Input
Amino acid sequence: MNHFIDLTLNGLAAGAVYAALALSLVIIYQATRVINFAQPALALIAVYIAYTVTQATGNYWLGFAAALVTGLVLGAATERILIRPVHGTSPLNAVIVTLGLLLVLQGAAGMIWSNEPHSFPYPLDFRGRFSPSDIFALASVGVAALLLFGLYRATPLGLRMRAAAFHPEAARLTGVRVGLMLMTGWAIASVIGALAGMLATPPFVYPNVLDAVFIFGITAAVVGGLENPFGALVGGLLIGVSLSYVSGYAGPELTTLAALAILVVVLSVRPDGLFTRPTARKV
Output
């Protein structure tokens, strides 16, 4: 019984990371109908900046803040420089751009910081059942989700962002700067992705450290529904707990296979996700 409880608690902590990454993917997909395959690379650069700041100052929290600021800047720059020029063309163009950016940033990280693993600290003590570090992961993702919900539902900026995402032409007619709102959405999503990277990276950082996390994050987004931020959060927790059980009872080498199996099953049974209502398409 104790083993089951430990696996559940560990799964919730890991699921918070997957939920944050899934939420960042959903925000961008809602706004532009693009799956941002570069999200793990954007988060990776943010983590490396945090590593550099932490090494220089000896203060983890300065590095943490630097990672979030880096995520904000990288997200906004990606949308403005790379995504906006291909907006309105084939969706495949944007996908190719994000895949190319993923490879470029991972390669650049290896050249700048080397491909060798670097020790990267946990935010808090990571020892014991449901450690302070695990609690911090759940709490920080929960706070981020609440702030995002408040932004979208209770502020004029959130209203303009939703209008730009769902009805861009009507939004332009009312004076909304749609391009600026989309860039803001990418920036916010990248901040949340940087948070996920900071929580997922310890104890080591290296160029491919977030690849598996991205697989689990995109699985969580699909399970919850790419149109549903709440579903992304729940999907992340479900994936975290499920994979923790697989790792604990069947072996950690099967977790990636289990995630892909879950993805295939959900796409076969509920292509729109478990928490998204299917919609009819006009033909």
Q: What stands out?
A: The first helix runs from residue 2 to 32. The CA atoms of residues 31 and 165 lie 4 Å apart.
